[in-house]
């Protein structure tokens, strides 16, 4: 079973340093490129715990440094997917203004104070630290002689373009869900576990403002409604201010899974 631990809790533990194979990132979508990083961690060759260092909230949404239209995965979806991919430990960093001021080297030193990092896996375009001061190639120099193996994973391509969360987010907004599925290796799903559903005679509704995930453009979509004990096909209407559907369910509605458009 996956363990999710906050940095403060981990830093207060008195046990010896845990040997881990680690990757670091937002992992907003866990697309096919991210999954290559995860495989490098899980199949680490050291018998080390497969671990991810990530954030509960997307840094862009916390710092307001750029326009942010919503996450692709909710936090609970991300944790569930990480477990499915073989991750045993998730270390959560609170992306506060204080953390954002650390250099990449200082951030790695912070992690090394509580984790024995046997292997670090990053993408070709990896950046970390204040002002994105540390990239993948600079990690080579930082980790030389440290006893940490560094693996840099090249770009993953789809239809002759690099797979990225920003690209997937754009495709979701355009309603191009078949391409999204190819890059996620799964359908795009809305997480409704913590969303208030307004039940009215004849339909159910959710305010767009209550959805923290990116949404497709206005229109009707073929979906499957997922409760705690069944899946039911139906139609979801995405409007300017709300999402609505006509089905009612006996169980608790957990997710809405978007199907590919023809």
Describe what this molecule looks like in 3D.
Strand 6 (127-128) and strand 7 (134-135) form a beta hairpin. The two termini are 38 Å apart. A seven-stranded antiparallel β-sheet has the order 11-17-14-15-16-13-12, with no helix packed on it. Strands 1-4-3-2-5-8 form a six-stranded parallel β-sheet. The protein has a two-stranded antiparallel ribbon with strand order 6-7. The protein folds into two domains: 3-158, HUPs (Rossmann fold); 189-258. The chain contains nine helices and 17 strands. It is elongated and about 65 Å long. The protein is an alpha/beta fold and 262 residues long.
Molecular shape: elongated
Order of helices and strands: EHEHEHHEHHEEEHEEEHHEEEEEEE
- Tell me the CATH superfamily of the largest domain: HUPs
Number of helical stretches of at least 4 residues: 9
Total E-strand runs: 17
User: What helical percentage do the residues reach?
Assistant: 25-40%
Strand content: 25-35%
How far apart, in Å, are the first and last alpha carbons?
Answer: 38 Å
Q: Which residues form runs of ≥5 with pLDDT under 50?
A: none
**Main pleated sheet:** 7 strands, antiparallel
Average pLDDT confidence is 92
Q: Rg to the nearest angstrom? A: 20 Å
Based on secondary structure, the structural category is alpha/beta
CATH topology of the largest domain: Rossmann fold
> Regarding CATH, which class of the largest domain?
Alpha Beta
Strand order of the largest sheet: 11-17-14-15-16-13-12
């Amino acid at each position: 079973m996956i363990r999710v631990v906050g940095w403060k809790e981990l830093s207060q533990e008195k046990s010896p340093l845990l040997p881990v194979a680690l990757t670091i990132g937002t992992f907003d979508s866990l697309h096919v490129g991210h999954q290559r990083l995860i495989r490098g961690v899980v199949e680490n060759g050291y018998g080390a715990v497969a671990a991810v260092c990530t954030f509960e909230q997307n840094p862009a949404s916390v710092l307001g440094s750029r326009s942010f239209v919503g996450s692709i995965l909710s936090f609970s979806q991300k944790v569930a997917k990480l477990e499915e991919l073989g991750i045993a430990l998730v270390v959560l960093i609170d992306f506060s203004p204080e953390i954002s001021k650390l250099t990449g080297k200082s951030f790695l030193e912070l992690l090394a104070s509580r984790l024995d990092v046997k292997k670090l896996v990053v993408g070709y375009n990896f950046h970390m630290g204040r002002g994105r001061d540390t990239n993948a190639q600079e990690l080579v120099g930082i980790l030389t002689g440290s006893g940490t193996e560094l693996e840099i994973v090249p770009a993953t391509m789809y239809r002759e373009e690099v797979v990225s969360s920003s690209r997937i987010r754009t495709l979701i907004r355009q309603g191009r869900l078949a391409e999204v599925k190819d890059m996620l290796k799964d359908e795009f799903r809305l997480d409704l576990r913590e969303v208030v559903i307004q039940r009215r005679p004849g339909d159910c509704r959710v305010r767009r403002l209550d959805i923290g995930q990116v949404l497709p453009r206005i229109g009707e979509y073929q979906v499957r409604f997922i409760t705690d004990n069944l899946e039911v096909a139906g139609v979801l209407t995405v409007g300017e201010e709300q999402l609505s559907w006509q089905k009612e369910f006996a169980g608790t509605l957990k997710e809405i899974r978007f199907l590919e458009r023809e």
